[in-house]
Amino acid sequence: MYRFLVTAVLLCTGSVLQAQQSNIEDAAAFSKDIHQPGVQVFDVRTAAEYNTGHLPNALQADYNNKAEFSERVKYLDKQKPVYVYCLAGGRSSKAAQWMRENGFNKVVELENGVNAWKLAGLPLEGVSEKKAQMTVDTYNKGIAKGIVLTDVGAAWCPPCRQMEPTLVKFLQKNKNVTFVKVDGGNDIDVMKAIDAKGLPTLILYKNGKEVWRKQGVSTMEELNAALKL
């Protein structure tokens, strides 16, 4: 009986260790697996780090910024795989543990992070010279006349990406609305000038006057109601 129990414990322990190890992949396996349908790639570095080069189709939330991380992680699908990474593996390990404890079905970590990705000779996206910021003067001229909707967002922001289809439908329906896009990872001077502190931030102007604003995901109903203000 004793031998049986010991054997059973060892087998269970081995199974647990194997399961834990399968949640961490080297760069080669990670690179292959993130191209599977339905996979969500999640960069938990800062926005500044993200802009120095990131993995394909990666969303971003700074794990060390608890408010930002908590807000953006809500827009990931818990039923679909999440492949998470950072610079060296420390932050992504903590983020992955949090997600597993909070109902995410499958979370896979990139072993040793972007450092290992580079050592493996794999390419990063978004590696280029920093583009010029939109000036505050250009922005002010863009909102001066008519009905203008400003969207402060970024392609790597999970709630921004979720918001995009609603914005497209809204603008298609309301041809009289001019759309101004502010890059939340680049147009810092404009963001400061309009006091946009989070992504996404939507602002509606009428002849240069702000009549409505919302930080976070907006519904079609909210946008339509803002037009009547």
UniProtKB/TrEMBL annotation:
Residues 35-126 form the Rhodanese domain. SMART domains: RHOD. InterPro entries: Rhodanese-like_dom, Rhodanese-like_dom_sf, Thioredoxin-like_sf, Thioredoxin_domain, Thiosulfate_ST/Rhodanese-like. Residues 1-19 form the signal peptide. Residues 110-229 form the Thioredoxin domain. Keywords: Signal. It holds the Pfam family Rhodanese. This is Thioredoxin.
